[in-house]
Design goal:
alpha/beta, TIM Barrel, eight-stranded parallel barrel, two-stranded antiparallel ribbon, 10 strands, 41% helix, 14% strand, globular
Length: 344
């Protein structure tokens, strides 16, 4: 396993990390993803550790805390061998203190996550979504207190707009507080919006990307393609309402190149899709998920080899989409492009 710095922090993370949304799955979304109990989860953790995957990502909102509880049971007795990343901020109830990232909510949410995880700290706490009701100053000062108390080691965000992420970094800089080191983002060959603003920001600010849904919400498994409709047993039938949208023709074009590169390399379509991400700027770790051992071992095959520059270029060309304004002229007009060369 390749290990990388998380942004410009001192934390080293594996190139692949494991997402535990399938642990204890309940409800229309997480129940469709998977329902691993503690015994099954322990076996998946065993396989991960054997492969060098030491970072496990969860969230309090995953199955209303059940994912954290199952993960806590699965790593019992080997806490020092793993890194735990969890997220908070999304609603966990209907009360006024059950959502958001205010000081009172954040402190309580961390304590409750630690209880479910059976741990005295998490290695990375990420704010699951931007809370417009909490001032950046209050947020960053609260994260500083949690770090000083030893309850969290590092802090990051997830699904944040660029301007709010930069605002939080500016507050930290101005007040001498710990800076955010990670951004958990949706990024895939059929979802490259991350590259427009968030990737240049991450490069400039030393923020490592933790990539969620690298297979485009299950669309890049090799089961879907031109003339191959969604299989009857696909979880997308139940979860597509939650998925980032993608135009069918764009998906088919990407899959055709993925299949061509897979034939050249002898790797699977999912392995190619994950490998492409691992060779992109700012990516610190790609979060893989699995409902069973076979899926996990397949995804683990994305490391230990590289795509050639020609293969990367072919995948880039097939998946490229013109970004929205104000980025459009920098791609279409030579004068604009000269002022701001593309990061990628």
């Amino acid at each position: 396993m390749d290990y990388r710095q998380l942004g410009t922090s001192g934390l080293r993370v594996p190139a692949l990390s494991f997402g535990t949304g399938t642990f204890g799955g309940t409800g229309p979304l997480f129940g469709a993803w998977g329902r691993s109990d503690a015994k099954e989860a322990r076996r998946l953790v065993d396989i991960c550790l054997e492969a060098g995957v030491t970072l496990f990502d969860t969230a309090d909102v995953y199955s209303n805390g059940a994912s954290e509880e199952v993960l806590g049971e699965a790593i019992k007795g080997r806490r020092d061998a793993v890194l735990i990343s969890t997220k908070t901020g999304l609603p966990m109830g209907e009360g006024p203190q059950d959502w958001g990232t205010s000081r009172s909510r954040l402190i309580r949410a961390v304590d409750e996550s630690l209880r479910r995880l059976q741990s005295d700290h998490v290695d990375l706490l990420q704010l699951h979504a931007f809370d417009a009701s909490t001032p950046a100053e209050e947020l960053m000062e609260t994260l500083d207190r949690l770090i000083a108390a030893g309850k969290i080691r590092y802090a990051g965000v997830s699904n944040y707009p660029g301007w709010q992420l930069m605002k939080a970094q500016a507050v930290a800089e101005r007040r001498g507080l710990p800076r955010l080191v990670a951004h958990q983002v949706y990024y895939s060959l059929i979802g490259r919006a991350y590259e427009a603003d968030l990737m240049p920001l991450a490069k400039d600010q030393g923020i490592g990307a933790l990539v969620w849904s690298p297979l485009g919400w299950g669309r890049l498994t090799g089961k879907i393609g031109r003339g191959r409709p969604l299989p009857r047993d696909s979880r997308l039938h139940d979860t597509e309402q939650f998925a980032p949208p993608v135009e069918a023709e764009h998906l088919y074009r990407v899959v055709e190149v993925l299949e061509a590169v897979a034939a050249e390399t002898g790797k699977s379509v999912p392995q190619i899709a994950i490998r492409w991400l691992l060779q992109r700027p700012t990516v610190s770790s790609v979060i893989i998920g699995a409902r069973n051992e076979d899926q996990l071992r397949q995804n683990l095959g994305a490391v230990g080899w590289t795509l050639t520059s020609e293969q990367m270029a072919a995948l880039d060309a097939a998946s490229d989409i013109l970004p929205p304004y104000p980025h459009t002229p920098y791609r279409q007009q030579e004068g604009f492009a000269r002022l701001n060369p593309a990061l990628v």
